[in-house]
Design goal:
The complex is a heterodimer of chains A (about 210) and B (about 280). Chain A has about 210 residues and is of the alpha+beta class. Chain A is about 30% helix and about 30% strand. In chain A, strands 1, 4, 5, 6, 7, 8, 9, 10 and 11 form a 9-stranded mixed beta sheet that branches. Chain B contains 15 helices and 5 strands. In chain B, helix 2 runs parallel beside helix 9 (about 180-200). Classes of the chains: A alpha+beta (about 210), B alpha+beta (about 280). The interface between A and B is medium-sized, with 28 and 39 residues.
Chain lengths: ~210, ~280
Amino acid sequence: MVTLAEQIPSPLHHPPLRDMFEARKRVFVDLLGWDVPVLEGRYEADQFDDEHAAYLIVACGDGRHAGSARLLPTLRPHILDTLFPDLCAAPPPRGAQVMEITRFCLDRSQGARERLETRNRLVSALVRYALENGIATYTGVAEMGWLQQILAFGWRCRPLGLPRTVDGKMLGALRIDVTPETPALLAANGIYRPAPLERSEILEAA
Amino acid sequence: MRTETLRQQNEIGDKGGLAASLRSRRVRGVMRTFDQAEAFLRDVSTTTSEVELADALATVARELGFDYFALTHHVDIRRAAQPAIRLHNYPEDWVQYYDDNSLGVSDPVHRASHLTSVGFAWSEIPNMLALTPRDHEVLARGQAQGIGDGFTIPANVPGETHGSCSFANPAGRPIRGEDLPVAQLVGAFGFEAARRLWRVRSADGAALPKLTDRQRECILWVARGKSDWEISRILGIQHETVVRHLKLARERYGVAKRTMLAVHALFEGSISFTDVMKR
C-alpha cells in the first residue's frame, strides 16, 4: 500500500508517521552520517517537517514502513534554496507546479531485492502524485551515486548546476519533468508499479 | 576561501563597483562551464546513434582540455551475448593491448571506480587500492602508449554491469582540476545516454523469470558457504527440496556451478553483500 499524508499539523506527532521518522534516523543519520537533527534519540525530523510537507509512504505486507519520501512546496523555503543554493547555476525552479523531493528513504531492514522493489513503488508513487496534483517538475539534491540511479529510472532529468563537494560528499541538483509519458518511460526501464495513493486516515478527521 | 570572502566584503564597503564587477566575472566563469555541460546534454538528449554520442563526448572532452575519452561497461558476466557499452577515441595500439590482455576485467582504473561514486584522478588510485606489480605494469604500459593522467567518473547502476566514463590526456600533460565538476556531470549523463542507446535494461531483464523467495534464501546460504544438507537443516526443509530450489535457480541464470549462482544473484541485486555478511 502507498499512503499519502499531507497537511498534517505536526507530522512528528502523527502516529502513522512515527515509523517513518525512525527509519529516516536509521538511514540518514546512522547509515549515511548526515548532520541532521535527531529528536529523542530516535526520530530524524527537521524544520521542514511541518504542515506544508507531503509524505508518500510505501508499506510492507505487514503494514510497516518500507520506504518514504517527503515533498516540499517550492514557494516556501525548501532544501535547495535554503541549504544548497550553490548547486544551482540559476535560481532553482519554483512555483505551484514545482515540488522538491527530499528524504527519499528505503528502510534498512529489507534485503536487497525488497529494497529495489520498494524503491520502484516509491518512484512510481511520486509520478502518480505529480500527475494527480498538477506537479510538472520535481527538484532534488542527490549524492553522485544516487544521482546515477535516478537518471537510470528513465524519466526526464536535467542538472540544475555543477556538482560540488559538501562535507566530503559530492552533491548535484536535478530537475525531473513529469508528463503523461513519464509512466511509460519508467515502464521501459522495468520499474513502473502503478498503485493508488491512499490518504492517511487522520486527514479525514482533521 | 574565508579570507577571500572577507576581502570581497571589504571591497563592497570601499568600492562597490569593483567588487560587483569581480563578482559578476566569477559568476560568468561558473556559468560558462555549466553551459558546456548543458550544451553536451542538449546534444545527447536527441542522440540516436553511437557515432553521434561518441562525437559529442569527443567534443566535450576537448573543451575540457582532454585528448581522450572512454565510456565503457567493465565486464559482462551475465551473458557474453549481451551487448556491453564501449565508446572511446583511445589510440589503436593501446586498445589492442588492452583487449589482448582482457583488461576490461582487471584494469586498476575500473577496480578503483567500483569503490566510489565520485570521479577521481588516476594519480589518486594508489591511495584507493593496493596495486599489484601487474597493475603497475598496466599503468606504465598505458603511459608508454601515450596515455597520461586521466579522470574517471564511475557509473554504477544496481543490477547492471558496472561502468565508467574516463577522460585522459597524453603522458606529460596534467589534467585541469577546475573542469572536473563538469566532467563529473558529463560522465553521469553521458553514461545514461549510452545506456538508453544500448537499451541495457529493456526486455532482457523482464524476460528472466523471478527468483522465488525460497530460492533466494537458499542462494543466500550458498553465498555463506553452506552445503545443501546444511541449508536444509537451517531452513527446516527437505534436503531434496533445497537441491531442487538451487537447480531451478541455476537454470534461471544459465550457470552450472553454485559459486556462479551466488555471484549472479549478488550482481543483479537479488541478494546484497550486506545480506550475505549480516550476522
